[in-house]
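Page 37, continued from 36.
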């Protein structure tokens, strides 16, 4: 892994069906001259495996100046997601990525590009993340990878992976901060009008909807529970609503949802608390009561464990994102 200050040359890999947003994240953070703001200049290159244009998912194409041999000069190699992310990485890309790691460069993936790194074997024995929708598949297909599904990004040695979409910004700023300090990362974030720092351990903002169940009686029990989160719900009473014994209820519940009744109920209560913190003005004590936690301390304990931040900090993040913006209009004739 590189040391502080050695991140100067950045190469981003794009392929057919690349995602414009993730590609633009790399361009915005590393590909724009911000020396006027005290940001050191980065040598930035866009690379493709073959010559010629590559198409994006959004309907436009680009032609890169560089091929994969350009990765040999990079301190940081960023792999962006493509529509073929579930396929094996090409042999040339695999070799270049391994060579980059062996000479001390950092290799990073945005979103589902973690599959490319996994196919290349770079994630074996490492912790990694990806978009929450793909986390289970990544874990299933690559059992040697320790998939962390509910964080924004993970850096494990010379390899770094980010979660879905905007988490690529968080990972990029983290790498800038580690190599060039918080002042440089903050300067870039300010120009991009994004939060300068969200800790990698913060959970992805994932909604927890009530999934449809094949078992109608169980579906009714789930729907009822969501409408009564402020009440004391125990498995014995809950199972009676499904007209089965507690043991049968627990077995069917896990088969349908993949988690225990207790875990599912906790996730629903935390999801409800998140919604109230985002949109409501109730105190944290009132949010705790309405969501069935009983006390603010209990809410904080479970919220911190599942979301990775406190209720107060979570509310502050969302309130900051929705803060009123003053727009100065130019006078007529100016």
């Amino acid at each position: 892994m590189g040391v502080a200050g050695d991140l100067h040359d950045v190469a981003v890999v794009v392929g057919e069906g690349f995602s414009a947003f993730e590609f633009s994240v790399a361009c915005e953070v590393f590909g724009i001259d911000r020396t006027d703001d005290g940001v050191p200049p980065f040598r930035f290159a866009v690379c493709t495996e073959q010559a010629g244009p590559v198409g994006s998912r959004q309907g436009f194409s680009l032609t890169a100046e560089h091929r994969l041999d350009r990765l040999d000069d990079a301190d940081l190699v960023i792999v962006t997601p493509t529509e073929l992310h579930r396929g094996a990485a090409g042999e040339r890309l695999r070799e270049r990525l391994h060579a980059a790691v062996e000479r001390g460069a950092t290799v990073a993936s945005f979103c589902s590009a973690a599959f490319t790194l996994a196919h290349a074997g770079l994630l074996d024995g490492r912790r990694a993340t990806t978009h929450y929708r793909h986390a289970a598949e990544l874990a299933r297909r690559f059992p040697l990878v320790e998939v962390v599904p509910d964080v924004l990004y993970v850096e494990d040695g010379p390899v770094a992976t980010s979660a879905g979409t905007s988490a690529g910004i968080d990972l990029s700023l983290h790498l800038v901060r580690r190599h060039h300090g918080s002042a440089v990362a903050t300067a870039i974030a300010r120009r991009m009008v994004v939060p300068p720092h969200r800790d990698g351990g913060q959970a992805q903002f994932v909604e927890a909807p009530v999934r449809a169940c094949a078992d109608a009686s169980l579906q009714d029990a789930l729907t009822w529970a969501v409408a009564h989160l402020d009440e004391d719900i125990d498995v014995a009473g809950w199972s009676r609503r499904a007209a089965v014994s507690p043991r049968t209820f627990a077995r069917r519940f896990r088969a349908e949802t993949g988690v225990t009744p207790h875990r599912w109920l906790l996730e629903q209560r935390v999801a409800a608390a998140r919604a109230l913190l985002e949109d409501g003005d109730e105190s944290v004590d009132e949010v705790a009561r309405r969501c069935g936690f009983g006390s603010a301390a209990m809410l904080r304990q479970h919220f911190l464990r599942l979301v990775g931040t406190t209720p107060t900090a979570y509310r502050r993040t969302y309130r900051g994102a929705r803060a009123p913006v003053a727009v100065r209009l130019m006078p007529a004739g100016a």
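The CA atoms of residues 8 and 42 lie 5 Å apart. Flag for discussion at group meeting. Residues 205-209, 321-334 have pLDDT under 50 and may be disordered.
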